[in-house]
Amino acid sequence: MTSNVSTWGELMKSLVTTALAATLLLLATGGVSDARPAADGPCTGQIHANPGFELGATGWTAGPRMVVLGDATRPAHTDLAYATFAGLDVTRSDLLRTTVTVPAGCDLTVRFWVRTITTETSRSDYLNVGLAVTGIPPKTRFSLAFDGGAQWRQYSMSTGTATTERTATASFLASETAGNGVTAFDVDDVTFTLS
Asked: What is the dihedral angle through the alpha carbons of 172, 59, 166, 114, rounded to the nearest 10 degrees?
């Protein structure tokens, strides 16, 4: 009987030592992990996959030849590509737009950069920038003209929060009239950030 008690005692001592080692390991490492990375909250981060047009028109509805690569005389705001409107001295319109989903309780801020290259002296060519949100009538937020400047300038617009999920469509509509000089509107780095 003595040998069974000794074996039983050694077994218990081994179990207690193993449990103590496991407890110390958990305390040292901060606990048990379920192997899933922590997810961002629903109201954080930039949500458009192609804000700088580096993937061409992917994620955007765009006219032909609208997304171009910058060069030394007319570089993109960042990276290589940007969207360009008009600049042909013909009567025409160009439209660029995209739609994103805004989760309930989130605000969406759309920031974008515009550069204006022009030979105009009066307002006949323009770029209207709009933001349409589910449940709110579409609205032109900016109407830019020839006097916007040849340097990149940043603009911003926001949806505000709502208790339900919504869609938001940002649109850039350029209109050009022939015979009054040439104006080209360049757009880059259109970010869609939730907060």
From this structure: -30
